[in-house]
Write a structure and sequence with these properties.
It is a single chain. Strands 1, 2, 3, 6, 7 and 8 form a 6-stranded parallel β-sheet that branches. Strands 4-5 form a two-stranded parallel ribbon. The chain has one domain: Glycoside hydrolase/deacetylase (TIM Barrel). It starts with a helix and ends with a strand. With about 220 residues, it is α/β, with parallel strands linked by helices. It contains 8 helices and 8 strands. Strand 6, helix 7 and strand 7 form a beta-alpha-beta unit.
Length: about 220
């Protein structure tokens, strides 16, 4: 049971199939944002990223994409990479395969309908996956993307603390000879319009503190 839980939920586990975790270059950092698009926060985040000349990867919830297609096009037009984060953000390990396929394919279609561009990246909500999840993602032409830095910004945490957690993890990854793939959140899966401005402020601080890093987007 413990082995299954590790394979299904630990972000760097490769037991159920290959996932993208992070670059092998310790000077590279990928910012990724889950649970958007969020009309109350994402535009501010885009402004911060543009000022810093940093591109990121946005993993979008399909039901929000259908409500905010113009905002999705703005994210893409700014040069950021887009990925799927399912339609409704369920824990995929608990669902039948028919529902897993619908969650992935419908969210992929929503993003592609909004942008006219093929979507090749997928991040499972909560990082939860099992062999069927990985297989369906591959059948849909998507690579599964995990992370090696997550800092709990879905909780009410001050920007300074969030930025400190990220920089500490970057340093730890560098000592291990790894790049860093950071999970942050510009939205929330429970409702559209989740308060995430502390995340935006943390990103602004990080682009100053880590200005010597090579900022990359996730590649499938």
């Amino acid at each position: 049971m413990g082995g299954f839980a590790y394979a299904a939920n630990w972000p760097t586990s490769q037991i159920f199939g290959r996932t993208i975790v992070a670059s092998s270059n310790p000077n590279e950092i990928a910012l990724t944002f889950d649970d958007g698009p969020n009309p109350t926060v994402t535009p501010h985040l885009l402004e911060v990223l543009a000022r810093a000349n940093v591109t990121a990867t946005f993993f979008l919830i399909g039901r929000y994409v259908q409500v905010e297609p113009t905002l999705v096009r703005e994210i893409a037009a700014a040069g950021h990479a887009l990925g799927c984060h399912t339609m409704t953000h369920p824990k995929l390990t608990l669902l039948p395969t028919t529902r897993i396929r619908a969650e992935l394919s419908d969210s992929q279609k929503a993003v592609e309908d909004a942008t006219g561009t093929k979507v090749t990246l997928f991040r499972p909500p909560h990082g939860a996956r099992r062999p069927a999840v990985m297989r369906i993602a591959r059948e849909l032409g998507m690579s599964t993307v995990m992370w090696n830095c997550i800092v709990g910004d879905w909780n009410p945490v001050a920007a300074e603390m969030l930025a400190g957690r990220v920089t500490a993890k970057v340093a730890k990854n560098q000592r291990a000879g790894q790049g860093t793939n950071v999970v942050l959140h510009d939205g929330g899966h429970l409702e559209l319009g989740a308060p995430r401005m502390e995340t935006v402020k943390a990103v602004e601080a990080l682009t100053r503190k880590l200005h010597g890093m090579n900022w990359i987007t996730t590649k499938g």
